[in-house]
Amino acid sequence: MSYYVTTPIYYVNAEPHLGHAYSTIGADILARHMRQRGEDVFFLTGTDEHGEPVARAAEAQNTTPQELADRNAERFKQLMPLIDVSHDFFIRTSDPRHKQEVARVMQRVFDNGYVYEGLYEGMYCPRCADFKSEHEIAEGNTCPVHKIELEKQSEESWFFKLSAFQEQLEQLFAERKDWILPRHRYNEALSFIKGGLHDVALSRAKLTWGVPLPWAPDQVMYVWFDALLNYISALTFAREGENLHDRYWPADVHVMAKDIIKFHAVYWPALLLAAEEELPKRMFVHGYLLMGGEKMSKSLGNVLDPLRVIELFGSDALRFYCYREVSFGQDGAVSTEGFETRYNTELANEYGNLASRTLAMISRYRGGVVPEEPDETGLEAEFGGAADDLAARMDALELTAGLDDVWALVRRLNRHVEERAPWKLAKDEAKSEELDATLYGLAEGLRVVSILLHPFIPQSTTKLLTALGCADHAGSLEAAEFGGREGAGAGGRTIGELPQLFPKLESDGD
Ligand code: ME8
User: Fold this and answer.
1) Cis peptide before 182, with omega less than 30 degrees from 0?
2) Residue 44 pairs with which residues in a beta bridge?
3) What is the pLDDT of residues 5-21, one digit of tens each?
4) 102 near 211, Cβ under 8 Å?
5) List 245, 298, 431, 504, catalytic entry
6) What is the distance in A from the centroid of ligand 1 to the CA of 264?
7) CATH 1.10.730.10 fits domain 335-479
8) What's the rounded Cα separation, in Å, for the pair 432 and 438?
9) Residue 128 known to be catalytic
10) Which of 81, 284, 302, 385 is most deeply buried (CB count within 10 A of its CB)?
11) Ligand 1 atom 2: the closest Cα is on which residue?
């Protein structure tokens, strides 16, 4: 089966920060997990390059929008391998092939009668590139997201008949209660719709940086319509000479944060209906990473640099911290202090140290060969069905809960070492079988959790699976059966060198 997952496409008016990394890592975890299940995955990310925010930023930097887009799109592209993101394609909306597809779809919307000409007047936030409706305006005529003063603007525009979709959207929400997850975001979008939909401007007369309207090329398309269409346009040119539309559309899940829910949950389905396209299957709206109680963003400052974290601790540490600390779907505070605690106690100790101790004991007591599977290890009950449980969590997009469940197994293995005390068993010849069973249980448990954790922390799990002689298991969720499928568990394997997975950082003196 196909599985198509997307991230928002990020504005190129600034450099990538941890918030962008967070969404992209979430989509990557889903993509990697689904590949482990043998699905035909397509994972899309990219950059949103048109519109006023980019045009204004370019002006402020005395450069052209294209040059600014080229420079900053490159930074987003470079971020992806650094955070181990395994996307299948990176779309840039200034790509002529995207523009051509946008023009084709919008012409269909026009031909279907959902577009008309009129005068637009309203309060506009140049950072959101959005006209604000009355209830979206914060105190002092400011933008609630960017806290900057809104501008009164009026211009001749083309309009999209969003209001024509009032009933259809209400019906969609009534029929598909899991269309937007988590539930409180579904409720938020529904109440926006129930508040009454108004037509929206579809073009900007004053701007030249964008996709020209096919029926009125003197105007460029409002950036949000151009941007949303990336999810469809990418499929038409991601693979040379192939159109992937029918293979992957409708998307299985669009991942994003709560700031852009209105566009995805309201404008996007209406636009797709107007263009006679199928609707995406689901959207997942996560919260904000918060530092010091404020949303971390380029406009408010307060940016925690993911590159620095990666430089010091590696990409797995960043991926793990974000998804364990901040429950996917909720806002959550992140801090360097919290990061170091989780790194030291969980990654370095509970996983890394457990792995190196286990392998060292197998070397010392059993000549580097994992004992064969015994009748009973004492771990079967907890490890049985873990892969199915994780799959169910991932299907419900409960990434943090899924990670927490697997981490409970990691902790179970740590308790197992303490309870069985293999170093004591090793001193007593009569306990040899018990020692075998214990060492097998630990190695097998580590094999299973490493496969399950692979989508979250791909680098270190690959290292450990390789040291256990099962490097090829990383790609298959089926392999995560405790005891191994058809006997292909850890038993009987010769272990290899394990590099230190999460070296403890020297404390800087305090
Ligand atoms: O809105 N916490 O682009 P953008 C978590 N181009 N996620 C965060 C975050 C934070 N503090 N800050 C940003 C746009 N994000 C449009 C999208 S899609 C067709 C067009 C993430 O560069 C989160 O995914 O402002 C959020 O939705 C996105 O970055 C906004 O990125």
Assistant:
1) yes
2) 6, 89
3) 999 999 998 788 899 99
4) yes
5) 298
6) 12
7) yes
8) 10
9) yes
10) 284
11) 288
Position in ligand 1 atom list of the atom nearest CA 228: 19
Give me the mean pLDDT over the 293-319 stretch.
69
Q: How many CB atoms lie within 10 A of CB 383?
A: 22
Overall pTM > 0.85 = yes
Share of the chain above pLDDT 90, in %: 81
DSSP three-state, residue 11:
strand
Q: Considering only CA atoms, which of 126, 162, 408, 356 is closest in space to residue 269?
A: 162
Residue with the two structure tokens 């539309």: 245
Tokens 């850890």 correspond to: 490
Give the phi and the psi of residue 26 in degrees, each rounded to 5. Answer: -60, -45
Tell me, yes or no, if 143 is annotated catalytic. yes
User: What DSSP designation does 397 have?
Assistant: T
Query: What whole-number distance in Å separates Cα of residue 116 and Cα of residue 506?
Result: 65
Where are the chain's structural domains? 335-479
Q: Which residues contact 147 (CB under 8 A, 6 or more apart)?
A: 138, 300
Q: Decide which of 123 and 77 is more confident.
A: 77
First to last CA, the chain: 53
* pLDDT attached to residue 204: 79
Q: Which of 33, 87, 98, 125 is catalytic?
A: 125
DSSP structure string for 196-265: ----EE-EESS--SSPEETTEEEEEEPHHHHHHTHHHHHHHHSSTT---HHHHPSPSEEEEEGGGHHIII
Question: Per-residue pLDDT tens for 386-444?
Answer: 999 999 999 999 999 999 999 999 999 999 999 999 999 999 999 999 999 999 999 99
Q: Which distant-in-sequence residues (6+ apart) come within 8 Å of 48 by Cβ?
A: 8, 9, 10, 11, 12, 93, 223, 227, 230
pLDDT (tens digit, 9 = 90+) per residue, 146-178? 899 999 888 888 999 999 999 999 999 999 999
Nearest CA-CA partner of 48 in 5, 103, 95, 88: 95
How far apart CA 462 and CA 441 sit, in angstroms, is 19
Query: What's the CA gap between 490 and 475, in Å, rounded?
Result: 16
- To test the pocket of ligand 1, the residue of 10, 83, 330 to mutate (highest count of ligand atoms within 8 Å of its CB) is 10
User: Measured at the alpha carbon of residue 421, what is the angle toward residues 418 and 426, in degrees to the nearest 5?
Assistant: 165
Phi, psi at 393, each rounded to 5°: -60, -45
**Helix/strand/coil for 461:** helix
Stretch 60-75: mean pLDDT: 95
User: In 3D, which of 36, 34, 60 has the Cα closest to residue 461?
Assistant: 36
